[in-house]
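Schema walkthrough. Field components (list of strings):
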Amino acid sequence: MSFDPHLAEFRFGHGLSPDIAPPQSVGEMLRGLTDTDDMAERFEIEPFPVFRQRMVQRESLQKQFKKVRGTDEGKALQKQIKLLKKDARQDHYLWMTAQILRATHSQTPFRERLQGFWADHFTTAGKAGIARRGVSPYVETTIRPHMSGKFEDMLIAAVTHPLMVHYLDQERSAGPNSIRAQKKPGKYGLNENLAREILELHTLGVGGPYTQNDVRELAELLTGLTFKINQGRHFQKALAEPGAETVLGKSYGGGQPHIRDIEAVLRDLARHPATARHLATKLAVHFVSDQPDPDLIGAVETAWRDSDGDLSEVYRALLSHPAAWDPSVSNFKQPFDFICSAARALAVHPRAIGNLSEKHARQRLFEPLALMGHIWQKPSGPDGLAEEDNAWITPQGMAVRLQWAVIVPRLLVGQLPDPRDFVDTALGPRADETIRFAAAAAESRAEGVGLVLISPAFQRR
Amino acid sequence: MDRRSFLTRSAALGCSLAASPLLTPVSFASAPGDNRLIVIVLRGGMDGLGVLAPYGDPAYSALRGAPDLGAEGFVDLDGFFAMHGALRPLAPLWQNGQLGFVHAVSTPYRDKRSHFDGQDLLEAGGADLKSGVARDGWLNRAMGHMPGQSADLAYAIGSDAMAILDGDMPVTRWSPDVDLALSPQAIRLAQLVMEKDPAMSAALADAFQLAGSDGDGVAVQGTVDDMMAMLQDNMTARRSSRYEVRLAKFAAQRLRKDVRIASFSLNGWDTHAQQTRLLDRSLATLSDVILTLKEELKGPAWQRTAIVAMTEFGRTARFNGTKGTDHGTGGAMILAGGAIRGGQVWADWPGLSEDALFQRRDLMPTRDLRAYSGWLLRGLFGLSSAAVQQDIFPQLELGADPQLLL
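Field assembly_structure (string):
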């Protein structure tokens, strides 16, 4: 079991493309991660600070509106607010298609897969208003630049990000002895949500060596972490619990409350052996198999510990291990990856979906994705998407994939390829006699292409 | 596909249920008893005061205006409460004791009034959000306590996530707007292509069976263009009012057989502006859904069915400046079905005077709505108080039995 270019594309990328050659080595895959991010340049997604201006604008229009409610001026302002919301909504769909186009045209699709992994690991969402459209900008600013650096930098960027602070109820969390809680007792109090998810989901893992007391102490240490719409991340001393807090036996803070104390505990958590174990397992499950080789997990874990969570070293360990190249495939593509890899096999042209109307983006991509079980950027919880294949191999999931595979590709490309050729384009060495027969026997191109996309050889990785 | 072949396949897949001694076709059908529970999640925050108007409360008309009790207006129920006119088609159910309401209730959620948090808590069944929300839903936890298990016990229907049924117990998820329309040849070829992958093959077989059972057949003659036109209609059908009726029809079809629990959601309750029009429409849909369930459950099954419709919070007692209401606290639940001891409103009425309102703005909840769900679970499925108060609804006090069921 060793490196195989086609398996590299299936397992660590978005499948085969008729236009792009598979990588020739692990080294090439890793180098790609630190090369210029040409996909981000070509298919742009708004950075969060720019996106945030939309929220600032919304707030200012709302303030003006309240003063002149009921007048003509008020009506005009309402119209402006409506437009602002509409723009954000439309861009939200365009950013989804930008993701698909990056996956379709990337020379280093491993980068896109890693983004999917980390964006899901740090799942967040806006709960109302324009913030609901902010996930792609959050990922672009917070996840993508940190994917090959130190995990602790990504951790800090993600969990102190305004969207996460908002999503996990950190923004109003106040220490019981904070200035704010003392002034308005009953109105302000501690919220443990972010602290718990940091320990349970983002770092140590649910089986990790922490207690309820650690959750509470971490929650108290996190008080003060909040945000301002016009500024972004913000530390508000009035909310902060005075005094030191002990997390996993180590004391943090104690002087003037400062965000440095929060960063310090996050760095320690990022390097913790339990975090190494948790993330090594999760990476192996995500990329290789629901039941990964324990030796593979061990190798990734060791690389994490030895490098204090240097993600390039972690990926190197993952990709260098023989078990990563076990040709018996088991993992099943999650819905978004299914769509991305279909687009890649079909070499969907940027013009075909880069400017899709909201209506068409919904019909062709967003709604089928939702019916496959993945409601785009509207997670059912901070634990994100299920890793178990069985969560996705469902009757409904299968039905929607089959129907999508027959209907939608035709709307994404000028002309569908001949299914007999498409077998080789999409499956390469995985094509077998059964699928060749099916592709040739189909009554239309659409059905033939659909059958190739629905085949186990295409959907398993 | 028949049940026997499904069982064989489940066993082949190493489905954990295959190890259960209960897994014979006979016990399969009878295990969970004969009672049925349908939970409808009303997303957006239904205005309890607008749906079930306490017009007998002296403070009501100052808040909402005197209700029109004429032929087109509210339907008087008991001289104190009147139901919204859009529910008039349900009046015969009220008279037959198959419709009831619970008023002045809410989840333990307070203060922030966010849909997102409110729905999370409603579906998780927890006591608060301070320590994050549970990963599973209360209805799934309840299944774990039900006597006898079956792979076909519960359905989450529609395209919403239905976190209420998330969890360890197996739940079938299906949305009747998922239609498969393929040529007979493509159906055969799809089965062939999947053949070597047992899990995918089984899921596809179930898909064909489910898609074929919810109204239109899977195999269609026609060009790809015809199919595409049909499917594009389907992809957008969700926005038509008939979509909800299809959900109800599908639920009833399943519940007539072995299924005992079904849940789906109805949207459109976030009535911030022009409430009259919005509420008319959403209540008409709810009324259609309940009547469809009654009709499709056909007699005996309907007699053993309880429907409960619940929402994440009520709305402000007063109208706002745009003829709507904003997010509030206390609200109402709707109960229906042949198993319900209807024709009554369960409420410990708090009153509507300024002082009686929660934070001087919302209807004051006087009981945890989870207590009503808990009593339904006890009555329908014989679950113990301990299971309800400790596992299904943490930190709940069930309190006195409201005797919701016949």
